[in-house]
Known about the structure:
This protein is mainly beta. The chain is built from one helix and seven strands, in the order ββαβββββ.
Amino acid sequence: MPLPKAEVSVTCHDAKNHVMECKRAIADESGYFQMELGVTKVSDFFMGDPSKACHVRLQASPEFKCNNPTNINYSSIEGASLRDEGKRWTGEGYDNVMYAAGPLAFRPAICPPKH
């Protein structure tokens, strides 16, 4: 279930695998977020591919009782990889591409044991 007002970050690496951009966003009332990255050339991204160069991480939950980020859809500390959604449009002299990340999830701080 999407979580409105959850905070996420997107971190992207450059061609030398150094962090070139790190931004935060707050999910809207539907639990989704959109973010514009300031990179204009695909070749500036690590391996020339934003889906390999950028990762999304949960940062903060608006729910006090459910605020521990999980790695439910990714296995590394980098976060969830982006996937190309196949949506493209041109605007202001450059091409735009929409990427998405798989569902992200928080868990409660204390999980009662199951017997």
